[in-house]
Design goal:
26% of the residues lie in helices and 33% in strands. The protein has 178 residues and is an alpha+beta fold. It has two domains: 106 residues, no CATH class; 62 residues, no CATH class. The two termini are 13 Å apart.
Length: 178
């Protein structure tokens, strides 16, 4: 989706490319027209969270460290609250922004895990019990999930690090803005 393709059509983007679990130096720096980057951002295989990745920065050295970012031509945002492609596209068009919106590997998943520490703190602050049948839905809404996705959510378990939840299928997208 591009809000106004002409505003970004000739735009050149610099980015660093790699793989999801990269341990080698981040040296694959590319300069791409916005239209070519849009194709790369939207052409992906359905499957596990593996494969290539695009980092919207060029780094001083060969490590992927935020303090070493020396150039950023692209803003990449995640939408994981449950907004649909149409809702996101309408909002972007309303602002007159060009963007590429693409689904993420976890698009339409129905499970979430949150920090156990954050969940326990929220329970304490709100006076809720972890056995409260509406606590999971309220917590997920508190964390930004839209009501239509969080409705009827349940906590399916906890361990020392995480609290696990089940909820409605959640649309998840990455939004790239030049």
């Amino acid at each position: 989706m591009s809000g106004h393709p002409s505003s970004a059509h000739g735009h050149i983007i610099n980015a660093t490319f790699g793989v999801f679990d990269q341990t080698t130096p981040w040296i694959d720096r590319r300069e791409l027209p916005w239209t070519e980057l849009a194709i790369q951002l939207t052409a992906h295989a359905i499957g596990r969270k593996e494969g290539s990745c695009i980092v919207p920065a060029l780094f001083k050295g060969t490590e992927r460290k935020k303090e070493d970012a020396e150039r950023i031509d692209l803003v990449m945002l995640d939408s994981d609250s449950g907004a649909t492609m149409d809702e996101i596209s309408t909002a972007l068009r309303g602002l007159g922004w060009a963007a590429v919106v693409s689904s993420t590997w976890s698009h339409l998943t129905f499970k979430a895990k949150m920090s156990r520490k954050v969940f326990d703190k929220w329970l304490s602050e709100t006076g809720r019990s972890d056995t409260d049948s509406s606590a999971a839905e309220a917590f997920l809404r508190h964390r930004g999930m839209l009501p239509k996705i969080a409705a009827g959510a349940t906590r399916t378990g906890t361990d020392e690090q995480f609290a696990y939840f089940q909820h409605g299928p959640c649309p998840k997208f990455r939004i790239a803005l030049p």
